[in-house]
Amino acid sequence: MHSEETNQVQVQPVDKEKVKKIWKVAGILALVTAIEFVFAFTMAAGVPRTSIFIALTIVKAFYIVGEFMHLKHEVKVLIWSILIPMIFVVWMLIAFIYEGGSLYDARF
Amino acid sequence: MSSTAHTIDQPKRSIWDGGQSPLKASYGKLMMWFFLLSDAFTFSALLVTYGMIRFAHPAYTGSVESFTFSQDYWPIPEKVFEAVPFLHGVELPLVFVGIMTFILILSSVTMVLAVEAGHRMDRKGVEKWMLWTIIGGLTFLGCQAWEWSHFITGTGGGGASLSWNEYGPPDFAALFFFITGFHGTHVLSGVVLNFIIYYNTITGVYDKRGHYEMVEKVGLYWHFVDLVWVFVFTFFYLV
């Protein structure tokens, strides 16, 4: 496993802009997480706070999926192939939380 | 197209007529995306179940300062997860899980940098950034192992198991183990995959192949693992 073998691969030089953009997105993710922590310790628990958490988490998800996983720059059909089936998750969330509420009413 | 009077028309070709990639992505990359979609359903099901079960239990309605563990209501996460390794007895709510989140997001960033190096056929760059990603993943696993061990041992009230725990209703611990356990298993398999690709990189497999697309594909898996953690972190530790 020596590195002295003739390497005919041409290494292209680093594009500083690309690397800067990557660290910029990393900074955004860290910042949003910090904001979530602030809300966690300063705002009272309840539906408004939970909604803020969910919104901020979706912002983070947008950056991770769109930039890190590069989905934002793919062909439109690929983007929709991934996003449209997630509607099932939205249905599941609404239906099951409602079920949970009904369970609570039945028990207590 | 001829310039004489021949008028045989070519049939219109659409991108779906074959011989090319309509989604401009290779088979392997597409299959990874669709696998991740199915895995997203699995984790969504687990997290929605967590929401439903938690919603079916009474919530604590007092002040944070006067909170005590009880079987009658769901616990407040910042009171359960307030331990940090090496700082025994110091109450640091959510600090350790914040560190874990930071480590995993950082390992995702190093993964993106590895993919970027792969695009430039920069083997040394890929090696460096893949190694950092693997180290980040292993560190996260170590932290999670400590978290489990501390959770199971407990703080004087009997600890936690799948059937009973000192922090709140039995479902609280059961769901903690299931959700973080499933996620931790994905992190472990991700580290194993990353190591295989790292090994292939240092032995020159991808240089010979002419492209580093495999790094991109395991990168997708690794980012997915990070994405799931972002959601687990929000729903288990923040809400």
Strand content of chain B: under 5%
Number of distinct helices of chain A: 4
Contiguous low-pLDDT stretches of chain A (5 residues minimum) are 1-5
Based on secondary structure, the structural category of chain B is mainly alpha
Any low-confidence stretches of chain B, pLDDT <50, length ≥5?
none
- Reading the helices and strands of chain A in chain order gives HHHH
Q: From the alpha-carbon coordinates, what is the Rg of chain A to the nearest angstrom?
A: 22 Å
Shape of chain B: elongated
**Count of structural domains of chain A:** 2
CATH architecture type of chain B = Up-down Bundle
Radius of gyration of chain B: 24 Å
Largest sheet of chain A: none
Described by the principal axes of the CA atoms, the overall outline of chain A is flat
Q: Total domains of chain B, how many?
A: 1
Q: In percent, how much strand structure appears in the residues of chain A?
A: under 5%
Describe the structure.
The N terminus of chain A is likely disordered. Chain A has four helices and no strands. The longest helix of chain A has 27 residues. Chain A folds into two domains: 58 residues; 34 residues. With 108 residues, chain A is mainly α. Chain A is flat. In chain A, helix 1 runs antiparallel to helix 2. Chain A starts with 15 loop residues before the first helix and ends with a helix. Chain B has 239 residues and is mostly helical. Chain B has one domain: Four Helix Bundle (Hemerythrin (Met), subunit A). Chain B has seven helices and no strands. In chain B, helix 1 packs antiparallel against helix 5, helix 3 packs antiparallel against helix 4 and helix 3 packs antiparallel against helix 7. The longest helix of chain B is centred in the C-terminal third of the chain and has 33 residues. The chains are: A mainly alpha (108), B mainly alpha (239). Chains A and B meet through helix 1, helix 2, helix 3 and helix 4 of A and helix 1, helix 3 and helix 7 of B.
